[in-house]
């Protein structure tokens, strides 16, 4: 079968870049023509340890020899180990494993509902999320997402969700807090344009939730797994969520998602209330365990934080005055205030992969293992691209 005929067999849910990648190692990927790219997308914040990280590969290979899958009807020791590591990294108590970010948010939403049901608090039914947020593409997660472009064409959506402006108190203060069940918030809106939450607002939001008996659910699907310089960004903000959702980076590319919850919430998931055939299966759990073990090391995270600060400064020095640099740790963005696509394309032609985050923002997500040499290659290439643009 010809290549173009096979192409036709895949649904066109993605506008794909004209590149076919076939190999990766560390911060680099290679296409089918043998061209090398510096990959500053990390497969959208997934390959946080770089491509084919050896420590994770070893543990997954060992698991491949032993048991691939057995279902959650049996005890899975490696799942328990992965859960303990995530609980410890988050300061929360219990973990539900699933296979993606959207599923982790669906699980959080279900747990919030069940938590109120168990307390006969049927009046607390509203879920608050924020404008420009992104929580995933499934029915519930899409309804949580505060972006019309994600929801267009899929009405009627799951009801009960209110979108409030991000980094803004007023809409929340006007809501009747007695009707609010939970708030979903991203510490840094990644898909929505690399917008970090203001520290002051986040502190206020956490206090507002606590004072009004509202569950604080932090979507760390993009910010987690060390991306922002602490294992979870909530830690840097000094807030204590009731639940954290994560996915993307926790399996180094092996599909895995997780909902981590405080004990009092987690208790509402009794046997039979939620489940996933694949969630936390031995292979995924081996990948998560190995990944979290590496990332949660203090020295590793300190280096991410240090690199993030230095790299952000070098971007600020380089970009034109009309552009803004935003971000936290190694989740960085340049808002050009004009279409970013030409810059992203020019970088790709010059052997560097980066992502958009909305029409005017370039999102830069190097592996957390990126070296200063690789970063300076990126800066030189970006400088060249910006010069050509003059
Ligand atoms: C990517 C992402 C999701 C969705 O994750 P999937 O694995 O694609 O379902 C949800 N929330 C945030 C913040 C994300 O970045």
From TrEMBL:
Pfam families: Aminotran_3. It is an enzyme of class 2 (transferase). GO terms for molecular function: identical protein binding; N2-acetyl-L-ornithine:2-oxoglutarate 5-aminotransferase activity; pyridoxal phosphate binding. InterPro entries: AcOrn/SuccOrn_fam (IPR004636), Aminotrans_3 (IPR005814), Aminotrans_3_PPA_site (IPR049704), Class-III_PLP-dep_AT (IPR050103), PyrdxlP-dep_Trfase (IPR015424), PyrdxlP-dep_Trfase_major (IPR015421), PyrdxlP-dep_Trfase_small (IPR015422). N(2)-acetyl-L-ornithine binds at residues 137, 276. Keywords: Amino-acid biosynthesis, Aminotransferase, Arginine biosynthesis, Cytoplasm, Pyridoxal phosphate, Transferase. Gene3D superfamilies: Aspartate Aminotransferase, domain 1, Type I PLP-dependent aspartate aminotransferase-like (Major domain). Its cofactor is pyridoxal 5'-phosphate. Its EC number is 2.6.1.11. The modification N6-(pyridoxal phosphate)lysine is found at residue 248. GO terms for biological process: L-arginine biosynthetic process. Pathway: Amino-acid biosynthesis; L-arginine biosynthesis; N(2)-acetyl-L-ornithine from L-glutamate: step 4/4. NCBIfam families: argD, PRK01278.1, PRK02936.1. May also have succinyldiaminopimelate aminotransferase activity, thus carrying out the corresponding step in lysine biosynthesis. Belongs to the class-III pyridoxal-phosphate-dependent aminotransferase family. ArgD subfamily. PANTHER family: ACETYLORNITHINE AMINOTRANSFERASE, MITOCHONDRIAL (PTHR11986:SF79), AMINOTRANSFERASE CLASS III (PTHR11986). This is Acetylornithine aminotransferase. It comes from Alkalicoccus urumqiensis. The lineage of its organism: Bacteria, Bacillati, Bacillota, Bacilli, Bacillales. The gene is argD.
């Amino acid at each position: 079968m010809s290549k173009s005929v096979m192409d036709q067999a895949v649904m066109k849910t993605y506008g794909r870049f004209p590149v076919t990648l076939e190999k990766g190692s560390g911060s680099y990927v290679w296409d089918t023509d043998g061209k090398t790219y510096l990959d500053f997308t990390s497969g959208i914040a997934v390959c946080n340890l770089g491509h084919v990280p050896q420590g994770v590969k070893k543990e997954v290979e060992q698991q491949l020899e032993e048991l691939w899958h057995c279902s959650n009807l049996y005890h899975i020791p490696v799942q328990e180990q992965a859960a303990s590591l995530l609980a410890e990294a988050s300061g929360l108590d219990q973990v539900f494993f699933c296979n993606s970010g959207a599923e982790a948010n669906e699980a959080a939403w279900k747990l919030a509902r069940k938590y109120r049901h168990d307390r006969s608090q049927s009046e607390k039914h509203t879920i608050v999320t924020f404008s420009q947020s992104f929580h995933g593409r499934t029915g519930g997660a899409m309804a949580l997402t505060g972006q019309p472009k994600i929801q267009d064409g899929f009405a009627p959506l799951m009801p009960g969700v209110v979108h409030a402006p991000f980094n803004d108190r007023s809409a929340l203060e006007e809501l009747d807090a007695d009707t609010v069940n939970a708030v979903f918030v991203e510490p840094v809106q990644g898909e929505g344009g690399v917008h970090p939450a203001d520290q002051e607002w986040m502190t206020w939001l956490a206090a507002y939730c606590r004072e009004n008996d509202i569950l604080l659910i932090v979507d760390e699907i993009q910010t987690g797994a060390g991306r922002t310089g602490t294992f979870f960004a909530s830690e840097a903000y000094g807030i204590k969520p009731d639940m954290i959702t994560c996915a993307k980076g926790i399996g180094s590319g092996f599909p895995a998602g997780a909902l981590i919850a405080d004990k009092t919430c987690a208790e509402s998931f009794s046997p039979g209330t939620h489940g996933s055939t694949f969630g936390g299966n031995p292979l995924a759990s081996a990948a998560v365990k190995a990944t979290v073990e590496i990332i949660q090391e203090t020295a590793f995270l300190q280096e991410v934080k240090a690199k993030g600060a230095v790299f952000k400064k070098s971007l600020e020095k380089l970009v034109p005055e009309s552009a803004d640099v935003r971000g936290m740790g190694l989740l960085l963005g340049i808002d050009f205030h004009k279409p970013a696509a030409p810059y992203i394309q020019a970088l790709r032609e010059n052997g560097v992969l980066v992502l958009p985050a909305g029409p005017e923002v370039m999102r830069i997500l190097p592996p957390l293992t990126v070296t200063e040499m690789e970063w300076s290659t990126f800066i030189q290439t970006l400088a060249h691209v910006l010069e050509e643009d003059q």
